[in-house]
Amino acid sequence: MIYNPEETEPSSGRLLIFTAFAGMTRTSTLELSMLASAEVKGCVFALSIVGNKIAAAVNSAVSRHVFLLYTQHLSQFRYCYTILILRRTRVWHCPIR
């Protein structure tokens, strides 16, 4: 993201979802792995999990995101891969006073 001093609110950002797991190195006990990311139109100020969805406060709006899981089987290579996608499903705009 490039800082623009003329903006009253940031115009772009990212929502990043990580998982923590027991690491195999001696220097740390936990390691992080990014599961999914999504571009957002602003700065993410807060996150909350609501059921199986994520609510994000982005600038002066609240958006709801869901996880979509896709699995692809490549039988000719005996390989399977899974993609986790974070998709925005709803936005509520809060009026600025």
Question: How would you describe the overall organization of this protein?
Answer:
It contains no helices and six strands. It has one domain (13-93). With 97 residues, it is mainly β. It has a four-stranded antiparallel sheet, with no helix packed on it. Strands 1-2 form a two-stranded antiparallel sheet.
Stretches where pLDDT falls below 50 for ≥5 residues?
A: none
Number of spatially distinct domains: 1
The helical percent reads under 10%
Shape descriptor:
extended
- Return the string of H and E elements: EEEEEE
Say how many strands there are: 6
Percent strand: over 45%
Q: Biggest sheet, in brief?
A: 4 strands, antiparallel
User: Treating each run of at least 4 consecutive H or I residues as one helix, how many helices?
Assistant: 0
> What structural class should be given to the helix and strand makeup?
mainly beta
Q: How far apart, in Å, are the first and last alpha carbons? A: 27 Å
Question: What does the average pLDDT come to?
Answer: 81
Whole-number radius of gyration?
17 Å
> Strands across the major sheet, in which order?
3-4-5-6
Summary of the model, kept short:
Helix content is 0%, strand content 65%.
What keywords describe this structure?
65% strand, 6 strands, 4-stranded antiparallel sheet, 97 residues, single chain, two-stranded antiparallel sheet, mainly beta
